[in-house]
Amino acid sequence: MTGPANEILVDARGLEPPEPMEKVMQTLALLRPGQSIRLLLHREPFPLYPLLAERGYRHATRMEADGSYVILIDPADAAAARPSDRPPR
Q1: Is the pTM value of this prediction over 0.85?
Q2: What is the pLDDT of residue 3?
Q3: What is the b/e burial string over 18-39, where b = at least 16 CB atoms within 10 angstroms of the residue's CB?
């Protein structure tokens, strides 16, 4: 699966904690203005959400038909600018 050019795809399906969170934290450091992260995961990452908020990021989570999750992560100040790009919560 590839996303738009302004997204960095992090496919963490099948990884066990804390690897998905570590991958996201590493990827946050790589974000450039206008970019977001699309995280693919086999479970909902509840511990990740408060860490994102503390660092000034927002997320939108969608559960797929197969039970996996798609989480779009972007800077909180950019979230309001692109509501149509965000999966529903």
Answers
A1: no
A2: 57
A3: eebbebbeebbeebeeebbbbb
